[in-house]
User: What shape does this take?
Amino acid sequence: MVNLHSVVILDSELTASAEVEAFENLCAQQKNTGAIVFFTGYVRVDQDVEKLYLEHYPGLTESQVDVLCDEARQRFDLQATFVVHRIGWMKPGETIVFVACASEHRQQAFQACSYIMDQLKTRVPFWKKELRGGVEQWVEQKESDILAQQHW
Amino acid sequence: MKVKLLFFARFRELFGISELDFNLQHGGNVMAVLDQLAKQFGVEIVEPLKAKNTLYAINLQIVTLDSELAEGDELAFMPPVTGG
Assistant: This one.
Protein backbone atom coordinates (compact mmCIF):
# COMPACT_ATOMS: atom_id res chain seq x y z
CA MET A 1 0.00 0.00 0.00
CA VAL A 2 1.32 3.45 -0.93
CA ASN A 3 2.04 5.74 2.02
CA LEU A 4 0.30 9.02 1.19
CA HIS A 5 1.42 10.83 4.33
CA SER A 6 5.07 10.82 5.26
CA VAL A 7 7.74 12.75 7.15
CA VAL A 8 11.48 12.66 6.50
CA ILE A 9 14.24 14.20 8.62
CA LEU A 10 17.32 14.61 6.45
CA ASP A 11 20.95 15.21 7.43
CA SER A 12 22.09 15.69 3.83
CA GLU A 13 21.18 18.04 0.99
CA LEU A 14 17.46 18.51 0.34
CA THR A 15 16.65 18.84 -3.37
CA ALA A 16 13.15 20.27 -3.72
CA SER A 17 12.87 19.47 -7.44
CA ALA A 18 13.38 15.76 -6.74
CA GLU A 19 10.76 15.87 -3.97
CA VAL A 20 8.30 17.67 -6.29
CA GLU A 21 8.71 14.99 -8.93
CA ALA A 22 8.31 12.14 -6.43
CA PHE A 23 5.19 13.72 -4.93
CA GLU A 24 3.64 14.39 -8.35
CA ASN A 25 4.23 10.76 -9.31
CA LEU A 26 2.58 9.65 -6.07
CA CYS A 27 -0.42 11.91 -6.70
CA ALA A 28 -0.70 10.77 -10.33
CA GLN A 29 -1.73 7.36 -8.94
CA GLN A 30 -4.69 9.02 -7.22
CA LYS A 31 -7.66 9.59 -9.49
CA ASN A 32 -9.00 12.86 -8.17
CA THR A 33 -6.07 15.13 -7.33
CA GLY A 34 -7.04 18.62 -8.46
CA ALA A 35 -4.37 20.70 -6.76
CA ILE A 36 -0.93 20.33 -5.24
CA VAL A 37 0.70 23.09 -3.21
CA PHE A 38 4.44 22.97 -2.51
CA PHE A 39 6.33 25.08 -0.01
CA THR A 40 10.13 25.30 0.03
CA GLY A 41 11.97 27.16 2.79
CA TYR A 42 15.60 28.24 2.43
CA VAL A 43 18.41 29.38 4.68
CA ARG A 44 18.28 33.13 3.97
CA VAL A 45 21.32 34.77 2.40
CA ASP A 46 21.53 37.92 4.47
CA GLN A 47 23.58 39.78 7.06
CA ASP A 48 26.70 37.93 8.08
CA VAL A 49 25.45 34.41 8.69
CA GLU A 50 28.15 31.98 7.56
CA LYS A 51 26.35 28.75 8.41
CA LEU A 52 23.20 27.53 10.11
CA TYR A 53 22.93 24.48 12.37
CA LEU A 54 19.68 22.65 13.02
CA GLU A 55 19.33 20.46 16.10
CA HIS A 56 16.28 18.27 16.70
CA TYR A 57 14.90 15.68 19.12
CA PRO A 58 14.91 12.34 17.24
CA GLY A 59 11.67 10.46 17.71
CA LEU A 60 9.66 13.39 19.02
CA THR A 61 10.34 15.48 15.92
CA GLU A 62 8.84 12.91 13.58
CA SER A 63 5.85 12.19 15.82
CA GLN A 64 5.10 15.91 16.26
CA VAL A 65 5.14 16.48 12.48
CA ASP A 66 2.81 13.46 12.17
CA VAL A 67 0.47 15.10 14.70
CA LEU A 68 0.41 18.34 12.67
CA CYS A 69 -0.29 16.47 9.44
CA ASP A 70 -3.09 14.51 11.15
CA GLU A 71 -4.59 17.80 12.32
CA ALA A 72 -4.30 19.19 8.79
CA ARG A 73 -6.13 16.14 7.42
CA GLN A 74 -8.93 16.64 9.95
CA ARG A 75 -9.26 20.34 9.05
CA PHE A 76 -8.86 20.11 5.29
CA ASP A 77 -9.79 17.71 2.53
CA LEU A 78 -6.35 16.24 1.81
CA GLN A 79 -5.26 13.29 -0.28
CA ALA A 80 -1.55 13.33 0.49
CA THR A 81 1.00 15.23 2.57
CA PHE A 82 4.78 15.13 2.59
CA VAL A 83 7.15 16.99 4.91
CA VAL A 84 10.95 16.95 4.64
CA HIS A 85 13.11 18.89 7.10
CA ARG A 86 16.88 19.28 7.16
CA ILE A 87 19.04 18.92 10.26
CA GLY A 88 22.76 19.54 10.80
CA TRP A 89 24.94 22.26 9.28
CA MET A 90 23.67 24.19 6.25
CA LYS A 91 24.93 27.05 4.14
CA PRO A 92 22.93 30.16 3.17
CA GLY A 93 20.81 29.39 0.12
CA GLU A 94 20.33 25.72 0.95
CA THR A 95 16.87 24.21 1.32
CA ILE A 96 15.80 23.75 4.92
CA VAL A 97 12.19 22.53 4.65
CA PHE A 98 9.82 21.17 2.01
CA VAL A 99 6.06 20.68 2.43
CA ALA A 100 3.65 19.23 -0.14
CA CYS A 101 -0.14 19.01 0.17
CA ALA A 102 -2.49 17.46 -2.38
CA SER A 103 -6.24 17.93 -2.50
CA GLU A 104 -9.16 17.90 -4.88
CA HIS A 105 -9.36 21.71 -4.65
CA ARG A 106 -6.68 24.39 -4.43
CA GLN A 107 -7.94 26.29 -1.37
CA GLN A 108 -7.76 23.17 0.78
CA ALA A 109 -4.19 22.48 -0.38
CA PHE A 110 -3.08 26.12 0.13
CA GLN A 111 -4.56 26.27 3.62
CA ALA A 112 -3.20 22.89 4.68
CA CYS A 113 0.32 23.81 3.57
CA SER A 114 0.10 27.10 5.45
CA TYR A 115 -1.32 25.36 8.54
CA ILE A 116 1.48 22.77 8.64
CA MET A 117 4.20 25.43 8.35
CA ASP A 118 2.62 27.74 10.95
CA GLN A 119 2.34 24.86 13.43
CA LEU A 120 5.77 23.43 12.65
CA LYS A 121 7.44 26.74 13.53
CA THR A 122 6.31 26.64 17.17
CA ARG A 123 5.45 23.03 18.01
CA VAL A 124 8.15 20.77 16.55
CA PRO A 125 11.47 20.36 18.38
CA PHE A 126 13.92 21.99 15.97
CA TRP A 127 16.44 24.60 17.07
CA LYS A 128 18.48 26.86 14.81
CA LYS A 129 21.96 28.06 15.67
CA GLU A 130 23.74 30.64 13.50
CA LEU A 131 27.44 31.04 12.94
CA ARG A 132 28.23 34.76 12.60
CA GLY A 133 31.75 36.08 12.54
CA GLY A 134 33.03 32.83 13.98
CA VAL A 135 30.57 32.99 16.90
CA GLU A 136 27.74 30.47 17.33
CA GLN A 137 24.43 31.82 18.60
CA TRP A 138 21.01 30.18 19.12
CA VAL A 139 18.19 31.81 17.16
CA GLU A 140 15.34 33.29 19.24
CA GLN A 141 11.73 32.29 18.62
CA LYS A 142 9.82 35.04 16.81
CA GLU A 143 6.64 36.57 18.24
CA SER A 144 5.24 36.67 14.68
CA ASP A 145 5.60 32.88 14.47
CA ILE A 146 3.66 32.44 17.72
CA LEU A 147 0.89 34.72 16.44
CA ALA A 148 0.76 32.84 13.13
CA GLN A 149 0.36 29.54 15.00
CA GLN A 150 -2.37 30.94 17.24
CA HIS A 151 -4.49 32.46 14.47
CA TRP A 152 -5.68 29.00 13.33
CA MET B 1 11.95 7.87 42.13
CA LYS B 2 14.58 7.61 39.40
CA VAL B 3 13.99 9.49 36.14
CA LYS B 4 16.21 10.62 33.28
CA LEU B 5 16.35 14.29 32.33
CA LEU B 6 17.25 15.40 28.79
CA PHE B 7 18.41 18.91 27.91
CA PHE B 8 18.30 20.24 24.35
CA ALA B 9 19.96 23.13 22.47
CA ARG B 10 20.65 26.13 24.72
CA PHE B 11 19.44 24.21 27.82
CA ARG B 12 22.13 21.59 27.18
CA GLU B 13 24.73 24.35 27.01
CA LEU B 14 23.29 26.00 30.12
CA PHE B 15 23.61 22.82 32.20
CA GLY B 16 26.71 21.57 30.38
CA ILE B 17 25.14 18.12 29.99
CA SER B 18 22.67 16.47 27.62
CA GLU B 19 21.39 13.84 30.09
CA LEU B 20 21.08 13.54 33.85
CA ASP B 21 20.04 10.53 35.94
CA PHE B 22 17.86 12.20 38.52
CA ASN B 23 16.39 11.03 41.83
CA LEU B 24 13.07 12.83 42.26
CA GLN B 25 12.92 12.55 46.05
CA HIS B 26 9.19 12.74 46.65
CA GLY B 27 7.86 11.87 43.19
CA GLY B 28 5.54 14.38 41.55
CA ASN B 29 5.14 16.35 38.36
CA VAL B 30 7.39 18.33 35.98
CA MET B 31 7.20 21.34 38.30
CA ALA B 32 8.48 19.20 41.18
CA VAL B 33 11.53 18.30 39.07
CA LEU B 34 12.14 22.00 38.38
CA ASP B 35 11.83 22.85 42.09
CA GLN B 36 14.33 20.16 43.02
CA LEU B 37 16.68 21.21 40.20
CA ALA B 38 16.54 24.79 41.56
CA LYS B 39 17.60 23.55 45.00
CA GLN B 40 20.45 21.51 43.54
CA PHE B 41 21.70 23.82 40.78
CA GLY B 42 20.35 27.24 41.82
CA VAL B 43 17.22 29.22 40.97
CA GLU B 44 18.84 31.26 38.19
CA ILE B 45 19.95 28.33 36.06
CA VAL B 46 16.47 26.74 36.30
CA GLU B 47 14.51 29.91 35.51
CA PRO B 48 14.84 29.58 31.67
CA LEU B 49 13.32 26.08 31.95
CA LYS B 50 10.12 27.68 33.30
CA ALA B 51 9.98 30.43 30.68
CA LYS B 52 7.01 30.92 28.35
CA ASN B 53 7.04 28.65 25.29
CA THR B 54 9.44 26.13 26.85
CA LEU B 55 8.34 22.64 25.82
CA TYR B 56 8.35 19.51 27.99
CA ALA B 57 8.06 15.89 26.91
CA ILE B 58 7.75 12.68 28.91
CA ASN B 59 8.69 9.54 26.99
CA LEU B 60 8.37 11.38 23.63
CA GLN B 61 4.95 12.87 24.42
CA ILE B 62 4.50 16.63 24.81
CA VAL B 63 3.30 17.36 28.36
CA THR B 64 2.69 20.32 30.70
CA LEU B 65 4.20 21.43 34.02
CA ASP B 66 1.53 19.57 35.99
CA SER B 67 2.10 16.21 34.24
CA GLU B 68 3.06 13.45 36.67
CA LEU B 69 6.21 11.36 36.32
CA ALA B 70 6.64 7.64 36.93
CA GLU B 71 9.70 5.56 37.75
CA GLY B 72 12.08 5.31 34.79
CA ASP B 73 10.45 8.12 32.80
CA GLU B 74 12.49 10.26 30.41
CA LEU B 75 11.71 13.97 30.82
CA ALA B 76 12.97 16.38 28.15
CA PHE B 77 13.40 20.12 28.60
CA MET B 78 13.21 21.97 25.27
CA PRO B 79 13.76 25.69 24.68
CA PRO B 80 11.28 27.57 22.44
CA VAL B 81 11.58 25.95 19.01
CA THR B 82 12.85 27.67 15.86
CA GLY B 83 12.49 25.25 12.97
CA GLY B 84 11.16 25.72 9.47
